[in-house]
Amino acid sequence: MNGRTNWLQQLFGPRHKSPGTPKPKAPNFEETSAASANTSPAPSDFVRGLVLTTNGQYEEALTVFEQMILSERDNSSAYTAKGNVLGRLGRPEEALLAHDEAIRLTPNSTHALYNKGKTLVDLGRFEEALPVFDQAILLASSNVHHPLTLIAFGGYEKDMATVAYRHKGVVLTQLKRFEEALPVFDQAILLAPKDAEAHYYKGVVLTQLNRFREALVALDVAIRLNPKSSDAYQYRGFALSSLGRAQEALPAFEQAILLNSDNLFAYYQKGDALVTLGRFREALTALLLAMPLQLDEYSAYRDTSMSFIVPEHYNSAVFSKRALVLTKLGLFEQVVANFDQLIRLNSEDANAYYGKGSALVKLGRLAEAESSFRQAIQLKPNDLNPYLELASLFVQIGQQEKSLPVLKAAIRLKPECIFIYTSVLNELGRFEEALASAEDGVLLNPGNPTAYRDKGLVLGMLGRFEEALLAFEQAIRLNPADADLYLRKANVLKQLGRREEALRTLEQAVRLNSDDVKVYLVIGAELFERGQFKKALPAFEWAIRLAPDNALAHYSKACVLAELGQFKKSLPSFEQAIRLNPDDPDGYRGQALILQELGRADEAVHLLQKAQELER
Description:
This protein is mostly helical and 616 residues long.
C-alpha cells in the first residue's frame, strides 16, 4: 500500500520512508524509547499500552496512557506514548500538546524532541520542525560517546542522532532546500554508513539538484544495502533517464515494479522512457498501469512527512503523457476520452480542457473544441496557449472577427501576440487598424524584426511603398540573415519600378537561403515577367528539385517552356501541376492552350470546360 505514494517522490520530492526498506535495527523511538524515559511506569500498565499500540488498538492504548497520567502527572514516558498514539489516530494537534508536556517534564529527552519534530512534520509545519530536530541532534550527539549511555542502550543515542539527521534532511527536502539537505544526509551517513535510507535520500536530493551521476552512486549504495527497495530502483531509473540513458533505465523501472507492483511512479517513468525510445505501444501499456489516484483514497497512501502534495498533479502528468502517446499514434478519439477521464477526476484541471480542445480540433469537432478552450481560459486565465488555440480555431473556420478579442487578451499575457492580431486585421482588409496595430507592435517590441516586417506589409497593402521599403530595410538591419525579408523588400522595389534593385535583392535572398523553394519561385517569376525565359527556366527547375510536390513550380516551368515554344515538353509539366492541385483552373486552361497549339483542339475542349466549372 505504501508504494502507491511512490510517484510523489519524483514530482514533488522524497517521502519520509522508502517502501521496501526494512525497519532500522535501532529501537522503535515512538514506543520502546518511551520506556527508557526518566520516569519508569509500572511495567504491567505501560507494557500493556505498548502492546495495544503495536496491535493497532489505539483507542484502548490511549485510555491506558491517560489513566497512567492521571495517577502520575510527572510521567514523561506516558505523555510521549500518548502523543504517539494520538498521532496514529490522526489527531496531531493533541499529539503535539502531549509531546510538549513530555519535553517540559524531561527537557533533555532526545526521543521526546524527536517525536515532537515528527509531529510538526505531520502537521506540515516544516519550519518549526527544523530547530526541534536540531536540538534532538545536539542532545544525541553530546551523548554518543558517553560510556553509560552506550552500555545502557546499546548505542541508542547514536542511532537517535542518525534518525534525527535523516528527518531533518527530509524536512529540508520538503522545503526544497536541497543544497542544505545534502550535507545533513552526509552527516547521517557518517554516523551510520550502512543506513540504506540515508543513502537513498541523498540520491533523491542529488536528482533534485540535477547531479544525476552522483545520484547514481548514492542510489547504488542504497540498493546494495537494501536490494528490496523499490523506490531506490525507481530513482535509479529516473537518474539514468535524465542522463539520456533511457534504454538502461528500463531494467531499473522493471525491478522497481517487480519489488512493488503498486509503485505507480515506476510505471509512469517506464512509460516516459519508452516514449523517449519511440516505443509508443509499449509506453501506452505502462502508462495505463500508472493508474490515477482517486481523491477519496489519497489519505490511505499519503505519507505524513509529505505536505502540500495533491494527487491532481500526478493525475494530470499521467493523462498528459498518455495523450502525447495517443496523439503520436493518431488516436484522437482516445485522446478526448483520456482527458474526459481526467476531467471526471478533477473538473478544475485547465490543462485537461486545453488538451481535449486540441484533440477535438484534429477531429474537426470545432464547436466542442471552442467550448473546451473557453473552459481552460476560465480556469487558468494566465495561460497563453488556450487563447492562441481558440484564436486559431476562429481563423480556421473563417470567423476572424471573433478571434480579435481573444488575441487582445493574449497580448496582455505576451506582447508579441500583437503580430498575430495585426495579421488578422490585415486579412480582414482593415488596413488602417492593422497599421495602428503594427505601429503599436513596434513600440512594444522595438528590437523585433517581425514588428517592422508587419508594418511594411500593411503599408504595402495601403500602397505606401516608400514607407514600406523603410520598414523592411529596418527589419533586415535587425535580422540580416532572414531571406524572407529580402523577398518582401524586392516586391516593394518592384512596385516602385526599381526592378534592377529588386533583382539584386532577390539574388541576396538566394545566397542567404539556397534551400528555400519560395526564393526560386519569386526570382523565376521576376525573370519571367522580364521576358528572360531561358534564365527563368533553371530557377523553376531548381524549385522542383527542392519541392517535387509543389504544383506552382511545375505550372511555372510549363509556362516557361510554352513561351520558349517547347509545347510538347510543357505538357507533362501542366499534367503534373493538375495532379498536384486539381482545383486550380489555370492548370487546365494552360494545358488546353498547349493542346490547341499542337492541333489537338478536340482534347482541349473538356479541359476548358473543367476550368470554367472550377471558376464558378
